[in-house]
Design goal:
This protein is mainly α. It is 62% helix and 5% strand. This is EF-hand domain-containing protein.
C-alpha cells in the first residue's frame, strides 16, 4: 500500500509538471510587443489595465500570455475539443481526454462551452500566483465535479482514473487496476474527518495543509513565469 501511495505521489507531481508545460511551454514562444494584435481575433479580451487589476500578472506578463494564447487559439477562445487536442500532445502514449475534460470544466467558469483569454488568465493567476488557500480552493473545485460543495468518493475516483489513463498505466505497467480506488480510499481516510462519506472544502483544505507532500507539490506553482 505504501508503494502504491509513493507511485501515486510521483504521478501527481508529473501531472503538475506536464500541466505547467501545457500552460507555459507553448505559450511563451512569440516575442512580446506593447499592444494586442486584434484584427483577426473574434473574441476581444478585456483591456490590459483591467486584466492587470483583476489578476496578479504584470502587463508585460499578460502580453506574453496573450500572444501565446492567440497563437494556439486564433479566434480568441478555445472549445473543449481543441483544448483536448492541445493537451494530448503532452501525453502521446496515454489517453488524456477525460482529464482534459475535467480541466476544461474548471477553466470554463461561465459554463458556455469555451474558454476565453480572460477565463484562462483568471484561472492561471490563482494557480500560479494565488495563496495556498486560493490554490486549494481551485483544486477542490476541480474535484467537485457536480459543484455541490463537497467531494464524493465517486468524483475523486473519476479524477484519479483519468490521471491513471493519462499516464499511470503507461508509466507503471505493473500497477494494479484497483490502484486508483486504493488511492481514493487512502485520501478519504485522511480527509473525511466526520466519516459522512463526503469531503467538504474545510476538510479538504485542512487535510491538504497537514500533508507535507501536497504542500511541496503546491510549491511547483511558484516562479513558473
Amino acid at each position: 500500500m505504501s508503494q502504491c501511495r509513493k507511485r501515486c505521489k510521483r504521478q501527481l507531481t508529473k501531472v503538475a509538471r506536464y500541466f505547467y508545460r501545457f500552460l507555459m511551454g507553448t505559450l511563451t514562444q512569440d516575442s512580446v510587443e506593447d499592444d494586442f494584435e486584434l484584427s483577426t481575433v473574434c473574441h476581444r479580451p478585456e483591456s490590459m489595465d483591467k486584466l492587470q487589476e483583476q489578476t496578479k500578472f504584470t502587463k508585460k506578463e499578460l502580453q506574453v500570455l496573450y500572444r501565446g494564447f492567440k497563437n494556439e487559439c486564433p479566434s480568441g477562445v478555445v472549445n473543449e475539443e481543441n483544448f483536448k487536442n492541445i493537451y494530448s500532445q503532452f501525453f502521446p502514449q496515454g489517453d488524456s481526454s477525460m482529464y482534459a475534460h475535467f480541466l476544461f470544466e474548471a477553466f470554463d467558469t461561465n459554463k458556455n462551452g469555451s474558454v476565453s483569454f480572460e477565463d484562462f488568465v483568471f484561472g492561471l493567476s490563482i494557480i500560479l500566483r494565488g495563496t495556498i488557500n486560493d490554490r486549494l480552493n481551485w483544486a477542490f473545485n476541480l474535484y467537485d465535479l457536480n459543484k455541490d460543495g463537497c467531494i464524493t468518493k465517486e468524483e475523486m475516483l473519476d479524477i484519479m482514473k483519468s490521471i491513471y489513463d493519462m499516464m499511470g498505466k503507461y508509466t507503471y505497467p505493473t500497477m494494479q487496476d484497483d490502484a486508483p480506488r486504493e488511492h481514493v480510499e487512502s485520501f478519504f481516510q485522511k480527509m473525511d474527518r466526520n466519516k459522512d462519506g463526503v469531503v467538504t472544502i474545510d476538510e479538504f483544505i485542512e487535510s491538504c495543509k497537514k500533508d507535507e507532500n501536497i504542500m511541496q507539490s503546491m510549491q511547483l506553482f511558484d516562479n513558473v513565469i
